Amino acid sequence: MRDAMTTTSVESVNSLSTRLRSAKVAAVAGLGVLLAGCAQNAAQDTFAPEGENAERIDGLTRLVFSIAGVVGVITFSLIGWTVWRYRDRGQPIPEQSEGRKSLEIGLTILPALILVGVAVPTVQTLSALNKTSDTECVVNVTGQQWWWEFDYPVQPGCLPGGITEPIVTSGQMVIPADTNVLIRGTSRDVIHSFWIPKLNGKRDMVPGRVHTLRMQANQPGIYAGQCAEFCGLSHANMRMEVVALSDAGFQTWVDNQLEAYTPPEEGTLAAEGEQTFIANCSRCHQVNGILDTNGTPIVSRPDTQVYPGAAPNLTNLMTRNTFAGAMWDLIDDQRREEVWEASPEEFDELYLAGVEDEWLNAVRLRAWLRNSPAEKAMYADPTQLEPTDGRYRGMPYLALSEDQIDQLIAYLLERK
Amino acid sequence: MAIIERPADTTTTVAPVEEAAPVTATSSYGYLRRPVESTGWRSWAFTVDHKKIGIMYGVVAMFFFIVGGLEAGLIRLQLAGPEGTVLSADKYNQMFTMHATTMVFLFVMPMAAAFANYFIPLQIGARDVAFPRMNALSFWVFLFGGIFLNTSWFLGGAADGGWFMYAPNSDVPFSPTNGVDFWALGLQITGIASLVGAINLITTVLNMRAPGMSLMKMPIFTWMAFVTQMLLLFAIPVITVALFLLMFQRSYDATFFSVEAGADPLLWQHLFWIFGHPEVYIIVLPSFGIVSEVLPVFSKKPLFGYTFVVFSGAAIGFVGWGVWAHHMFASGLGPVSVAVFSVAPLAIDVIFGGAVLGLFAGMYYWWPKVFGKTLSESWGKWNFWLMIIGMNLTFGPMHIIGLQGQPRRMYQWTENRAGEGFFNLGMWNLVATIGTFVLIVGVALFFINAIWIHRRQPVAPLDPWDARTLEWLTTNPPKPHNFDRTPTVHALDEVFHRKYEDVGEGDSHEYVQRSTLDELVLEEEAQADAHIHLPAPSYWPIVLAFGLPIMAYGVIYTTWLIVLGAAIVVAALFGWALEPADAEDADFDPPAAGGESTSKELANV
Amino acid sequence: MSDIVADAPEAVEDHAADHGDHGGHGAHGGHHTSLGLSNTKLAMWLFLGSECLLFGGLISTYMLYRNRQGSGPSPDQLWDIPFTSASSFVLLMSSLTMVLAVSAAGRKDDRNTNLWLTVTAVLGGLFVAGQVYEFTTFYREGLGYTDSLFASSFYTLTGFHGVHVSIGIIMLLATVGMVAKNRISGDKAETIEMVGLYWHFVDIVWIIIFTLVYLIPA
Question: Minimal CA–CA distance to B490: which of B214, B121, B126?
């Protein structure tokens, strides 16, 4: 026998259980579409495509969201109306109907049809995204805890004259704009995932396998990205950017990357920095063309120091504007804003200017050189390297003096 | 507890219950007697009563809900602002791994098990499950496994590879502490609990239905819980294989996930998600079942399309096996990559909404059945609204955060990627954190309602909701033997049909109440079966369960513990097999049938 | 609806007619079961169903890694098919003796039940001894557990099977003891049958392993 109190308890238990799934789909879909656009300039906004692939994804997403939103609103409204219309007002027990075949079959077929309808553009989009036969330029991407390496193999594409020598960089992947670039990606340690939201979806970078992804940016500019598969301690800090330059700009960039090494002028701070670099950094960080005292080119052997076997190539560090796995900018806030907000026409020049002393983010860079494990969570405690056979995962503490840091900065500023 | 409305004068005189005779369960091996206590902690530690076990599952599950909730609170505090300092990167990674593992394996699954354990026998008209001692074993194994898993916090750090624990990040060079070992072993142990429970409940549902209860007359909750158990039966072995491979990799230098040796890291993903997809149905189907029970009661109509719903549940069970790779779209399997994957915990919002709120609905609905009182209505409403508002405030922004480019599992976010304007990542992260605390307050209200307000609540009537299904044909709480007379079932929603009769003619319907539930229960009492056999309590389930974490510690620390733990397990198995089938006082001869009750628990009836 | 009440006796009768009494009253404790199959037998079938997935996962892992031998020896260098065939035959025969044990239990012939159970356990033990001999030979020929993916998956798969056989042997011997001391509560014949189910399953798994691992060339 029911108590008098059950009228409201009916509602509470009903609302407890009826509004759940449909409420979420409708509210979130609508909300998502509405408000996701409200954050201006979120660097990794998935609703602001800047390349063909991302545009395809965005089109599909909006379509499916809209359909889901409509379905959600209808469902939610129907439930709301039903709960109100048939609320308990002491009516007699209704007919104990157990169903109606037509309704049951209809309500099964209708969602099925909607899903089939959604499936068609989905499959079309997926096969369009998967196409890699129309790419003209190849970049090999390698993820490693917790930074990204980009290397450009010798190839006839990317430029009118092709790329004649391999280029190895990290942190920022430079590509020609309005060109289909084929990324061939893998990892040196755990599974990472390459994700530049404004240009395309994610692709896992799996050790032992090579996965492909097509990257294309409509216009020159800088596009932020992030590792999208949990990869350990500093997963949150493993970032990268794709930089798209005009064809002329890209040519300039390639030429610059392949320029021969210019040692610092004798007697300058930078010259001392070169020596400090050789003594402290060359073990792991490759700078092409740097010579030791005998005149032999120094080849870094990070595989003896670092568990996954590599460290970022610093030959042209100051031609890019982030460091430490793109965790920080090499440039100060004002310069950053100028570069990131630049129009496509102005972008090439601003980017190719690289990093100058006047807008160097000295505080961050100094902090990094002073004590990198304190700045970025890594496995760099020399007393705890047994699981990795004595090798680091990340950059260790180098106990550099402030003078040494001054020297290094002077030297690094010339790496462009 | 006397909560049946008895007529003032009764023609049936209940024989006064005598003091129970001193009990001696005998056996030829003196140490193998059955436990005899019916009160105190021993009556819980050695119980095989599915109702007590169900309550224990529920209590422990709610405890782990708090643990998981605190872990969530810390996570959200860390993410409330940019570059948070509440948790270090390492601690954060442990926190989100353990939060998810706790919520999935130590809260939602055991909570569903609590309902399944308590209500399946009652809904099908049985006195207990098919294997009562195995039922107890499942619970104790789960409890000890959950405790074992959480001792990792104090023994060098918890697992930090995410609850999905992808290889090779789960391997020793990348996760050098014992955390992942605790995780793998802890899940093996709780996996045993789930597997054993599945065998038990499937056998119960298939074999122990009351006369007349065909499969298509079973209450819908039992159906959904049954499909859940079938999923568990086949999904648990797959993750068992994955966990063994991981254990051998980490503890014995196997190379299953070593890329240098030529391993394929995707092996882990395939094995994990072949388990993982059925797992999400395991999580949500019981709540589907609960909601499908509650709605008809309060709509005063049968479940619309019961047959379709049953077949849908079964279809989910079947089809769910074929879709695991939708958890691997970005893994480089083939030509599929979808941007929506970057949307932050969409799945978790669905789990919370669908599964967790369903479980809370079940608690409020069945509380009077289990404890004899209803929970407070007004506190309940505050509980509900704060939870649903808190839930939407917490998880709703996460969709937006994901769409704005912040991936999951990040211990910090930074200003320079947060976007400009008011509605940027900073704002949404803060809202999500506030939402978490609203949710925590909401949940706290539940505990206040359940623990303190509960005491002041009046004893509830036998049929507070005018219910429809067989579990209500018992006292509140049910007697140890559940039904005085094994019911004969004639229809779906049997209790509704016993209470109401359709006196309409032709197409018109008019439902008239011919009996109240109180009258029906009294009638059952009067027609009680002459002799009711109850399974006797036993020491061995809890003893056996105790050996398992010892073996697990052995894998991590020293082989001698493996030997010790195994010895305990084997000894308990022998004790189990050899103990007497019965204790003398386990049988109950109802007074109404002319017998003398010997069960102490019924002294007040 | 009054017709539902009227249905009651029919429903009960139908139920009885549908499920009959076969298996119901013979089951231990005399419990009637809805399916007509005893609880313990049903439980064993369910357990074996879950074991199919367990071995399925292990076999899949082996099939994935069977060709990744690193620098270690390969199957054609290691396998001694005649020997493994012989030990497979031994295991197959143990299933036969298991059937004889079940049959004896059905006839309530305790003495022969125990005889055949013991023979089954001995044959099982012979099989395990053969496995141990094989593995130590492989090890000496350079197939260490951690040496290659092929090695790890091979040993893990066959090791799990061997553990299952060993547990089966313990179950057989424990059953012998309990039959001898008359400690089996409930239906003795059914308990033996249940052990038999497990034993046959373990045998079938071996047939699959033997075929996939030893007989089909990599």
Answer: B214
Amino acid B206 reads: L
B169, B217, B268: which to substitute to probe chain A, counting the most A Cβ within 10 Å?
B169
Which residue among C11, C43, C57 sits closest to B203, beta carbon to beta carbon?
A: C43
Shortest alpha-carbon distance between residue C103 and chain B (Å): 23
Residues in chain B: 605
87-126 of B, contacting C, C-beta below 8 A: none
d(CA A27, CA B314): 30
* 3-class secondary-structure state, position B159: coil
Beta bridge partners of B513: B500
**In the 8-state DSSP scheme, what is residue A297?**
B
Instruction: Please state, in angstroms and rounded to a whole number, the distance separating the CA atoms of residues B513 and B497.
Output: 9
Quote the pTM value.
0.89
Name which of B480, B561, B461, B475 is nearest B522 in CA terms. Answer: B475
B413 near A CB under 8 A: yes
Distances from the Cα of C66 to the Cαs of A76, B324, C148, in angstroms? 54, 24, 10
pLDDT tens for residues A50-89? 999 999 999 999 999 999 999 999 999 999 999 999 988 9
Distance CA C218, CA C214 (A): 9
Domain coordinates of chain A in residue numbers?
A: 269-412
CB-closest option in B202, B271, B578 to C57:
B271
The whole-number pLDDT of residue A215 equals: 94
Residue of B nearest to C144 (CA): B254
Cα A211 from Cα B15, distance rounded (Å): 80
Please identify which residue in the block is written with the tokens 């099925």: A112
Q: Distance between the two ends of chain A, CA-based, in angstroms?
A: 85
The 3-state DSSP class for residue A351 equals: helix
Average pLDDT, rounded, for chain B: 87
Of the pLDDT bands very low, low, confident and very high (cuts 50, 70, 90), residue B226 is: very high
Model confidence pLDDT, tens digit, residues C61-83? 999 999 998 888 989 889 999 99
C174/B254 CB distance under 8 A: no
Query: Residue A170: which of A143, A131, A204 has the closest Cα?
Result: A143
Could you give the CA distance from residue C97 to residue B378 in angstroms, rounded to a whole number?
68
φ and ψ of A379, to 5 deg: -100, 85
Rounded CA-CA distance B387/A156 in Å is 61
Q: Using CB atoms, which residue from B198, B200, B490 is nearest to C7? A: B490
The pair of structure tokens assigned to B123 is: 């809904």
Q: A200 to chain B: nearest residue by CA?
A: B339
Cα–Cα nearest to A150, from A110, A98, A194: A194
**In 3D, which of A409, A408, A413, A392 has the Cα closest to residue A146?**
A392
Contact by Cβ (8 Å): A210, B336: no
Looking at residue B69, its pLDDT comes to: 96
Cis peptide bond prior to A146, omega within 30° of 0: yes
* Whether CATH 1.10.760 fits A269-412: yes
Residue A138 near residue A182 (C-beta atoms within 8 A): yes
B212 interfaces chain C, CB cutoff of 8 Å: yes
How high is the pLDDT of residue B177?
A: 94
Give the DSSP H or E segment for A184: strand A181-187
* Complex ipTM more than 0.85, yes or no: yes
C18-30: per-residue pLDDT in tens? 333 333 333 344 4
Cα A52 to Cα A48, A56, A216, A241, B247: the distances in Å are 12, 6, 6, 17, 44
Contact indicator for B555, B181 with CB cutoff of 8 Å = yes
- The total of other beta-carbon atoms located within 10 Å of residue A264's CB is 18
Segment A144-173, tens digit of pLDDT? 999 999 999 999 989 998 999 999 999 999
A207 interaction partners in chain B (CB closer than 8 Å): 168, 259, 265
Parallel, antiparallel, or unpaired for β A181-187 and A137-144? parallel
